[in-house]
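Re: that chain you flagged

S.,

Sorry for the slow reply, it's been a week of failed gels. I finally had a moment to sit down with the sequence you sent. For the record, here it is as I used it:
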Amino acid sequence: MSNGWTVPGYTEVRELGSGGSGRVVLAVHDATGTAVAVKYLSDRMREDPAFVREFRAEARLLGGLVSPYVTGFYEYVEAPDGAAIVMELIDGISLRAVLLESGRTDAEAALVVLKGSLLGLAAAHRAGVVHRDYKPENVLVAANGSSKLVDFGIAANRGTTPGVAGTPAYMAPEQWQGRPASPTADVYAATATFFECLTGRKPYDGANFAELAVQHIEAPVPETEAPEPVRPLIRRGLAKRPEQRPENAEAFVAELEAVAVAAYGPRWEERGQRKLAALAALLPLLFPSAGGAAAGTTAVATTSIGSGWAPGRGGWLATGLSLVLGAVLVFTTDAAGGTPPGSSALSDFATTSPGAPSPPTPGPSQTAPSGSPSPSPSGSPSPSASASPSPAPTPTPTAWPSTGTSPSWSPTPRPTFTWSPTPTPTPTLRVTELDVSLKPGAYRADAAVSLSTQGSGPVTVVLQWFLGDAQGSYTVPDGTDTVVVRAGAPTTLVQSHTFPRGRGCYAGVRVTTKPAAANGTASDSQLLARCTDLEPPR
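Prediction finished late last night. Pasting the structure tokens below so you have them in one place:
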């Protein structure tokens, strides 16, 4: 897996976990003695430029997030012999390990878990980033009962359409469709995890991907299985339509606090944190500070089914069956949310971190294979270790170099090195065909855009919306949406738009791309359902 390369300026102490994509080690920063977690990309993955770009993007994303509820970032180093992310080291265990041991938590402890990791999501959402893989494996519980969010390996910019990705048991309906990344999908996954804390089981238990897809999209929200006072949170967070959920994690935190105070009083969080700490204390050997042996890590599902394909409601059974065929090949976690051994994905090791001796020092964590508890990156704003503080590297990332070069900076003075990869010819990016079809509702319409491309790189899709009084009359502009997709296989994306009342009966959309498609533009207009009684006889 490794050629023996290590990040200069750090001394490796021990391996914390490994997986198909790489390994995570506990190391010490030579200049300050600070313990850190170093996440190495495997040699096999480094041979694929796409994986290297994604690994680099994860580092860039972490460098832009400053929050006590998100794993801290120190530096990213890339050289001819390796690539690594140096991160905060935190003493704690995964929420999955807690649930495997205890089965469930009470409502106050579950609310504490939800609030802590939602605050981590809120930091990402403010930065325009969607996590896309919130689940118990990616929530860390510290010894003091605080929680933190980790592993942004498959995060995406809000509004982009990176395809179907996530862990099936926690994926929002729109994720199954490959719709643009949205904070409301993270809210859904966080609520699914909250439900699991409360009940000991996932909201939906489909035996295969077909059943699971249909349940997430159509089955009633199982709110009655949760304690009555928190059912409004379950109902809101697991709503089928994104617009029926809180718009982002920050909005959901406000709703959570209102419900929690009304139901459990103003000291609910203090009690919940104590209860959560007591549950974590049942697993002392899983804390990185215990110095246990490295464990296999939990795979993160970096799945991709097609390219944002989204069938109509009437075809969901066929959708599910098709998902089964694709998911057998690409899902790295099973329908129950577990992880098969030996799975490999872009981030199929969790960001792990043992406890650091200094309060500002981030810390690694460990995760375990499905079915057995094992240390995980723990998100406590301040490590619980009692050792005296020591200076920590100061996270001061500099500006990232332009695309195609390899960033390298350090938080404290040490020998630095950079490299410039040998340029490789990139096929000219072309959009060979563009098409759009409009499916109207009463006051909204869904545009299904299909495009075929050659070469590699991002394609910008611009949708201009119109209203008119006759079919094909694009007379009243009603906004523009811009979506970026990745070139490759034929791609279909679905974009929805809501029209104002009383401004025309025909919805229209005109689509262009950059680079321009061979056929220039594509357009369609259809009669809105609210005006069907006005349609002239044929």
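What I noticed first: The chain is about 25% helix and 25% strand.

Talk soon,
D.
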